[in-house]
């Protein structure tokens, strides 16, 4: 059976300080904190989700803030750059905003597109690219109006210690189409409108080191739970050993490590983030899995307080 993912579902990364994480992704980038929960495997650590107004698949970046955690090193076996799509004509706004907030950036070009490249406060590499495709965000916050807001993922740049194997998986397992090569980058495209453009470094890279400022895994879309089960069967037939299906409350997940070292997840688009709290108040309450509800006070006391707040540079 031929299977094709529509593109990126979400990307998950490590950072150090939870409030700084909120200040950057909500305050600087204007994304909505759509879910405030915990790492199900380490409930003393937040799991924070940022995206468009509803955290739609293809828009959500998620973080594990480990206070005092080690600094990571971007390298092979990782997402090297997380790319966001912004509306056509918004580059001047974003360049001015980054400059005003003291965030250094550079311009780069590839495959006929221009990118603004910068890093978050933990060193995670980020790019903005103008794209026509993708539903505009309806969320505005601080100094980012909705008509300039990030739509969602533009895609990602992947670093592999075995690029040919990684590219084989993208084509033959995940169903992306190879579009061409420019320098050391090979471009692939999925069928969706967001999170659909993947560039792979053709040069093998030494292993990165996981930690703050690096991506833990990249998740690909399955449209619903039924297709998600089919994806697991497909991954097994392709010679990999995925995890069992794991209920992550807001999507079902399976994980496997492709042969270039990158941890892949396949996540279902359903049920989404609004099934356990109202759309109007997404991200405001600490949401816990049912097995931790009887320990809510204990879990909450072990987490640092955080708030979504406008940056000083936006309130002057």
Give a description of the structure.
The chain has 316 residues and is α+β, with helices and mostly antiparallel strands. The protein has a single domain (8-315), classed as 2,3-Dihydroxybiphenyl 1,2-Dioxygenase, domain 1. 17% of the residues lie in helices and 34% in strands. It contains 6 helices and 16 strands. The protein has helices at residues 18-28, 91-100, 163-173, 225-237, 296-301, 312-315; strands at residues 8-15, 32-39, 42-51, 60-65, 78-86, 106-110, 113-119, 125-130, 152-159, 177-182, 185-189, 197-201, 215-222, 246-247, 251-257, 263-271. Strands 2-3-4-1-13-16-15-14 form an 8-stranded mixed sheet. The protein has an 8-stranded mixed sheet with strand order 6-7-8-5-9-12-11-10, covered by helices on one side. A hairpin with a 2-residue loop joins strand 10 and strand 11 (185-189). It starts with 7 loop residues before the first strand and ends with a helix.
Summarize the entry for a quick read.
Residues 7-131, 152-269 form the VOC domain. With 316 residues, the chain is α+β, with helices and mostly antiparallel strands.
Largest sheet: 8 strands, mixed
Instruction: Write down the secondary-structure element order.
Output: EHEEEEHEEEEHEEEEHEEEHH
- The number of strands is 16
Percent in strands: 25-35%
Task: Give me the CATH fold name.
Answer: 2,3-Dihydroxybiphenyl 1,2-Dioxygenase, domain 1
Number of domains: 1
End-to-end distance: 57 Å
GO molecular function: dioxygenase activity
Organism: Paenibacillus hodogayensis
Domain VOC: 7-131, 152-269
Keywords: Dioxygenase, Oxidoreductase
